Amino acid sequence: MESCEQQMRSVADTRGKHRISAELKQLEQEARFLEEVLENGEEKENRSYNSEELEQVDKMEKASAVCKEILVNTQTRPDPLLPETTGPTSPLWDRWFERPPDASSCRCWIL
């Protein structure tokens, strides 16, 4: 039997140098990002908000009201890109979307 160390080497070798290098670079990038966040965190906490920004936020509608308005508008108006039909334009087209009368003899995997 192989030792645990030999097994780990064989697993590591199958990953490839490029993948290991990419993972290492990603970890280094994440570490740099976290260091920047820690350094700049104090500056961002001390930032005072502009009174104009706060006034704009106060004047904004709530998101739920806007979502309800969009929902009502989309449900009441027909889609201009879709043709308006109340039924099939030709009843012959329906046969392509129905199951065959004897479905057990159908060799189609979709149905």
Automatic annotation (TrEMBL):
Residues covered by the G protein gamma domain: 21-111
Main localisation: membrane
Chain positions covered by the region annotation Disordered: 77-96
Pfam families linked: G-gamma
SMART domains found in the cross-reference section: G_gamma
Cellular-component GO terms for this entry: plasma membrane
InterPro entries (alphabetical): G-protein_gamma-like_dom (IPR015898), GG1/2 (IPR045878)
Keyword terms of this UniProt record: Cell membrane, Coiled coil, Membrane, Transducer
Annotated coiled-coil segments of the chain: 17-44
Subcellular location: Cell membrane
Domain of life: Eukaryota
GO terms of biological process kind: G protein-coupled receptor signaling pathway
Keyword Electron transport: no
Name by which UniProt lists this protein: G protein gamma domain-containing protein
Source organism: Cuscuta europaea
Lineage: Eukaryota, Viridiplantae, Streptophyta, Embryophyta, Tracheophyta
